[in-house]
Amino acid sequence: MTVDDEVEVDIEKVVTALAVAGNDDVGEDIWFSVMAATWRGSSGHPDALKAFVGWSQKSHKHRDRRTLERWKAFRRDTRRDISVRTLYHYADEAQPGWSEAYDRAALAEAFDQIRKAAAELKSARGGGR
Fold first, then answer.
1. Cα four-point dihedral sign 32, 35, 40, 44
2. How far, in Å, CA of 103 to CA of 17, rounded?
């Protein structure tokens, strides 16, 4: 699904980025930027919200109500200067190379699915007669 004008986004990748991104009581500006990037990269998907809340809860400053209110206030055109790349960059600072490892694993999984589908098709046609 394309949400960001420049990046093909993947909700699982957004969730993974939040899992590797550090949150050592980040300041309000970084917190907001990560939230906006998460929202933009997922179009507000519930799985992304859940992952963001988990990331935000790593800080003693986290407040459930405030987080949910801010999340609900976003619209697709909110903060066009922040994209999912902001989140990916922040995660890369915490764990360099995570994105490339994620992409390799996703590509390997896609090829496995293609191989399985081809084998099933061959089997359904009687072994390729």
1. negative
2. 12
Distance between CA 121 and CA 127 in Å, rounded? 9
Any idea what DSSP says for residue 128?
T
User: For position 6, what pLDDT does the model report?
Assistant: 55
Q: How many CB atoms lie within 10 A of CB 32?
A: 14
Token pair recorded at residue 38: 């998460």
Please report, as a single letter, which amino acid is at residue 62: H
pTM: 0.78
Nearest to 74 by CA among 30, 34, 114: 34
Residue type, 121: L
Closest CA to 71 of 45, 102, 91: 45
Phi, psi of 79 (to 5 degrees): 45, 70
pLDDT in tens, 43-91: 889 999 999 999 999 998 899 999 999 998 886 556 667 889 999 999 9
Answer yes or no: are the C-beta atoms of 26 and 59 closer than 8 Å: yes
| Torsion, CA 77, CA 80, CA 82, CA 85, rounded to 10 | 90
